[in-house]
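Appendix C: a fully annotated inverse folding record. The material below is reproduced so that readers can follow the format used throughout the book. The structure is listed first as C-alpha cells, followed by the designed sequence.
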C-alpha cells in the first residue's frame, strides 16, 4: 500500500522497510520488488549489486520476472560483464514458465545468432 500509495500517502521508505522484512523471511514478491527498487532507484539509492542480490533470491524460488531481469542485465552488460551464456540461462528459466517477453528475447537471440552467444537457429527462433 505504501509502495503504490493506495489508501495511504505513497512512501517508498516505509514500503522498502516492509518489503525488506518480508524478503528476509523468504517472501518471493518482496524479493523481486526490492530488486526493482534498487534497479530503478525508486526511493532508495540505486544499486545494481543489491538489485541482483534480490533478483537471485527470487530466481531461486522460480520467479520468472526476476529471471527475466537477470537475463536482461547479463544480456546488456548492465554494471556487470556482458555474458550471453548467463543471459540465456536466465531467459530460458523464465521462458520455460511461459514468460512471453523472455521468449521474445530468446527468439531474437536465436534468429541473430553468432555475436550473442548462441548458434543461429531459425527453427528455435520461430519456436520462441
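Designed amino acids, in order:
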Amino acid at each position: 500500500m505504501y509502495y503504490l500509495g493506495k489508501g495511504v500517502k505513497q512512501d517508498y521508505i516505509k514500503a522498502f522497510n516492509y518489503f525488506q522484512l518480508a524478503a528476509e523471511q523468504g517472501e518471493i514478491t518482496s524479493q523481486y520488488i526490492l530488486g526493482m527498487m534498487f534497479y530503478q532507484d525508486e526511493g532508495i539509492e540505486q544499486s545494481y549489486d543489491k538489485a541482483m542480490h534480490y533478483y537471485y533470491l527470487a530466481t531461486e524460488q522460480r520467479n520468472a520476472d526476476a529471471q527475466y531481469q537477470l537475463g536482461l542485465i547479463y544480456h546488456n552488460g548492465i554494471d556487470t560483464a556482458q555474458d550471453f551464456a548467463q543471459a540465456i540461462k536466465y531467459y530460458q528459466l523464465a521462458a520455460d514458465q511461459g514468460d512471453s517477453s523472455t521468449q521474445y528475447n530468446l527468439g531474437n537471440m536465436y534468429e541473430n545468432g553468432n555475436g550473442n552467444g548462441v548458434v543461429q537457429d531459425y527453427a528455435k527462433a520461430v519456436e520462441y
